[in-house]
Amino acid sequence: MSGGYEQDRVPAGTIELEAATRSFRVQADAGRTLKELVLRSGARRKGVRGPEEVWALRGVDLRIEPGETVAIVGRNGAGKSSTLRVLAGIVPLDGGVVRIGGHVAALLDLAAGFSRDFSGRENIMMGGALYGLTRRQVEERLEEMVAFSELGEFVDLPLKAYSSGMLVRLAFAIVAFLDADVLLIDEVLAVGDGAFQRKCEERIAAQVAGGSTLVLVSHDLSLIERTCRRTVLLEGGRVAADGPTEVVLQQYVRLLEGEAAPVRGTDHLAEVAAGTTGPVTGEDEA
Amino acid sequence: MSSTSASRPSDLKGHGFLFQQLVQRELRQKYQGSVLGLLWYLVNPLLLLGAYYLMFGVVLKPGFSHPAYPLFIMTAMVVWLFVQQTLPAAGDSLLAQAALLRKARFPREIIPTAVVTVQALTFAALLAVVAVLTVAFRGTLGFPLLLLPVVVLLLILFVQGLALAISGLHAHFRDVQPIVGAILVPWFFVTPIFYRPTDITDQSLARFALEWLNPVAPFAEAVRTILYDGNVPSAETLVYLVVVSALALGIGAALFRRLQRDLAVML
């Protein structure tokens, strides 16, 4: 079973999910080695059931218009990060379709894929390439990116020499200048110092003002209030609420309070215990 | 289901720069900060060639002889070295670049292909050295040399097919790369490098097996025929090479397409 990822069949900046479905299984199911595969097929014959499916998206229909600013909230494991990965085309759907108009830039795993042995400048080239730019396009933006990152002379040093804050600045600088029609941001703004965070927010606001669509996953409610006019609440892979941020956030807060009373995070623990040793495959707990 | 084809990031155009960056990174990363740098790519195989020659040409005197025996060995050995170095490297490639796979949407084939490209460049450089030496010493300058690029191209396509299959399989089953590593050892000895099948057996069945059952053997023998003998490989050899590389590439690419779907989630 597989779903579709269609690019440029809708106007630039539009995002459309249609009956989008995606589930994950707990890691051990993947049969990492032949030995496990053999053992697993043996277990199946004896009628032992595999780990349960965790639904990230379960028949979700969603349409986001160009220029909208949308936050996705939900409890841990509700499928927020997976949704972003689906929108970015990194994780395929099991069923349904996702349609994206124009160029997508996803700020996921910000510093992932950087090479510590190479300079900031070289990593900018690689980063740009990863997002589908040509050499010329990266070179045109290079100076802007370097200036934005405030790395100064460090930009020519290998990443080994960088602090974690510098890594974040470099990573954000790359994505900030991709001129994407759709910006997908996962929690990453929480890192870096306050001044740089504000600068990033301003840059994002400028891009939104220029017509880009923003989809943000975050636990930072005040950041959501500042940047997003619409909020989608995911619950068990379904859209539990979708509307103006101030309304949906209230509902979200009630949801959190409701579950906070007994023992917080038990559902995640239960998931791990019921499943197996491994983490959830989608690493979908942000 | 109908839109499955559109769901696959298979569009290579627009990702040429990424491919180029990966090749560059791969080339440089390995030996960055070392004095010889990229030359290590040539030094290692040359040392290996020298060691094998000492072992099989000097220490263990075989019961047959070929003039300019080091060249006889080398012309087949370069082909083997390309296969031997590429397959394990490709097997590991998706795991090594898992962070990139999780970060952006691009055709996953780029990653093993970059590894094959780097190894193919090394192979081409080494082959150039061997070719110049062999042609000079053996006086085999002639029109058969025109076939060398064709054979090399077919070999690269053949290895690319295997690399796609192995990298995709290894991402799913972590035993694949060790298995490949284990197979390479006996595979080396059944590949006619230090000998020709006629040197070691009179049995036509054994000879047939040595010549045709191992797909690397016809490639090695074709290169040797062109460089060392100065002859054109037989028609059946050329047909065999075309068929085997097309098969490897076709099956490897199809397999990879099936296996690449959930890479960002699995790795």
UniProtKB/TrEMBL annotation, chain A:
<dbReference type="GO" id="GO:0005524">
    <property type="term" value="F:ATP binding"/>
</dbReference>
<protein>
    <submittedName>
        <fullName>Unannotated protein</fullName>
    </submittedName>
</protein>
<dbReference type="InterPro" id="IPR015860">
    <property type="entry name" value="ABC_transpr_TagH-like"/>
</dbReference>
<dbReference type="GO" id="GO:0016887">
    <property type="term" value="F:ATP hydrolysis activity"/>
</dbReference>
<dbReference type="InterPro" id="IPR003593">
    <property type="entry name" value="AAA+_ATPase"/>
</dbReference>
<dbReference type="InterPro" id="IPR017871">
    <property type="entry name" value="ABC_transporter-like_CS"/>
</dbReference>
<dbReference type="GO" id="GO:0016020">
    <property type="term" value="C:membrane"/>
</dbReference>
<dbReference type="GO" id="GO:0140359">
    <property type="term" value="F:ABC-type transporter activity"/>
</dbReference>
<comment type="similarity">
    <text>Belongs to the ABC transporter superfamily.</text>
</comment>
<keyword id="KW-0547">Nucleotide-binding</keyword>
<dbReference type="Pfam" id="PF00005">
    <property type="entry name" value="ABC_tran"/>
</dbReference>
<keyword id="KW-0067">ATP-binding</keyword>
<dbReference type="InterPro" id="IPR003439">
    <property type="entry name" value="ABC_transporter-like_ATP-bd"/>
</dbReference>
<feature type="domain" description="ABC transporter">
    <location>
        <begin position="39"/>
        <end position="261"/>
    </location>
</feature>
<dbReference type="InterPro" id="IPR050683">
    <property type="entry name" value="Bact_Polysacc_Export_ATP-bd"/>
</dbReference>
<keyword id="KW-0813">Transport</keyword>
<dbReference type="InterPro" id="IPR027417">
    <property type="entry name" value="P-loop_NTPase"/>
</dbReference>
TrEMBL record, chain B:
<feature type="transmembrane region" description="Helical">
    <location>
        <begin position="143"/>
        <end position="166"/>
    </location>
</feature>
<feature type="domain" description="ABC transmembrane type-2">
    <location>
        <begin position="36"/>
        <end position="259"/>
    </location>
</feature>
<keyword id="KW-1133">Transmembrane helix</keyword>
<keyword id="KW-0812">Transmembrane</keyword>
<dbReference type="GO" id="GO:0140359">
    <property type="term" value="F:ABC-type transporter activity"/>
</dbReference>
<keyword id="KW-0472">Membrane</keyword>
<feature type="transmembrane region" description="Helical">
    <location>
        <begin position="35"/>
        <end position="56"/>
    </location>
</feature>
<feature type="transmembrane region" description="Helical">
    <location>
        <begin position="237"/>
        <end position="256"/>
    </location>
</feature>
<dbReference type="GO" id="GO:0015920">
    <property type="term" value="P:lipopolysaccharide transport"/>
</dbReference>
<dbReference type="GO" id="GO:0043190">
    <property type="term" value="C:ATP-binding cassette (ABC) transporter complex"/>
</dbReference>
<dbReference type="InterPro" id="IPR047817">
    <property type="entry name" value="ABC2_TM_bact-type"/>
</dbReference>
<feature type="transmembrane region" description="Helical">
    <location>
        <begin position="68"/>
        <end position="90"/>
    </location>
</feature>
<dbReference type="Pfam" id="PF01061">
    <property type="entry name" value="ABC2_membrane"/>
</dbReference>
<feature type="transmembrane region" description="Helical">
    <location>
        <begin position="178"/>
        <end position="195"/>
    </location>
</feature>
<keyword id="KW-1003">Cell membrane</keyword>
<dbReference type="InterPro" id="IPR000412">
    <property type="entry name" value="ABC_2_transport"/>
</dbReference>
<protein>
    <submittedName>
        <fullName>Unannotated protein</fullName>
    </submittedName>
</protein>
<keyword id="KW-0813">Transport</keyword>
<keyword id="KW-0997">Cell inner membrane</keyword>
<dbReference type="InterPro" id="IPR013525">
    <property type="entry name" value="ABC2_TM"/>
</dbReference>
<feature type="transmembrane region" description="Helical">
    <location>
        <begin position="110"/>
        <end position="137"/>
    </location>
</feature>
